[in-house]
Design brief:
The chain is mainly alpha-helical. The protein has two domains: 6-106, Orthogonal Bundle (Rna Polymerase Sigma Factor, Chain: A); 119-206, Winged helix-like DNA-binding domain superfamily/Winged helix DNA-binding domain (Arc Repressor Mutant, subunit A), CATH 1.10.10.10. The chain contains ten helices and no strands. It has helices at 6-11, 13-32, 36-58, 61-78, 88-106, 124-127, 141-153, 156-167, 172-179, 183-206. The radius of gyration is 19 Å and the shape is elongated. The N and C termini lie far apart (60 Å).
């Protein structure tokens, strides 16, 4: 480690990523052994990520706060079961996803769009060219508001897949791990979610 310079890390992002993962693995192992400062550091490292993701799913600050607390309670209780076969962030996303979906199922007052019989969503004009409206980099306020409203109308299961894949940047495989779906199921839900959002945008700008 002493032979690795800051310049070499800047020039080699892959090396930096490997070092950060090694440091996090050491931190996790200490936390698993009962080291409280290490556990506190993990909580501090992920609390904003967990809160932001929970808020994107449930769209309510109080619920997001509650889910964040429940997620870290679950992490503290179950960290000894973490086997390092996936990234800690992926494991935490799965806990958040479970809490969000349980909360959504309890809130029966809200209705969401159903894709089950909507074959129109598979028209090429809705599914194509999603890359022209990347959610993260959208600066157009009107477009972002339309997107936010459309995302809220997605059923939680579909919203979860879309946010994990297209907003949080997880791979298809990681999204499948978090949601405990098969890869074909993830791709299907992602396609339907993207098509619905494209349809909502097209219709909003054609009014």
């Amino acid at each position: 480690m002493s032979n690795i310079t800051i310049k070499s890390l800047v020039l080699n992002p892959k090396l930096l990523k490997i070092i950060l993962l090694m440091e996090e693995k050491e931190l996790i192992q200490k936390a698993q052994s009962g080291d409280k400062p290490s556990l506190a550091e993990l909580v501090k490292k992920y609390e904003q990520t967990i809160y932001n993701f929970a808020f994107k799913i449930c769209r309510d600050k109080n619920y997001a706060e509650q889910i964040m607390q429940e997620t870290f309670y679950s992490m503290v209780k179950s960290l000894h079961q973490f086997d390092h076969n996936s990234k800690l962030s992926t494991w935490l996303y799965r806990i958040v996803a479970n809490h969000c979906l349980m909360m959504a199922r309890k809130a029966k007052s809200r209705s969401f769009v159903s894709f089950d019989d909507d074959d129109n969503l598979f028209e090429e004009k809705y599914a194509a060219d999603w890359s022209s409206i990347p959610y993260k980099d959208t600066e157009n306020t009107e477009l972002k508001n339309i997107l936010d409203k459309a995302i809220q109308n997605l059923a939680p299961d579909y919203r979860m897949v879309f946010l994990l894949r297209d907003v949080e940047g997880l791979s298809t495989e990681e999204t499948a791990q978090v949601t405990e779906l098969s890869i074909p199921a993830v791709k299907s839900r992602l396609h339907r979610a993207r098509a619905f959002l494209r349809k909502e945008i097209n219709e909003a700008f054609s009014r």
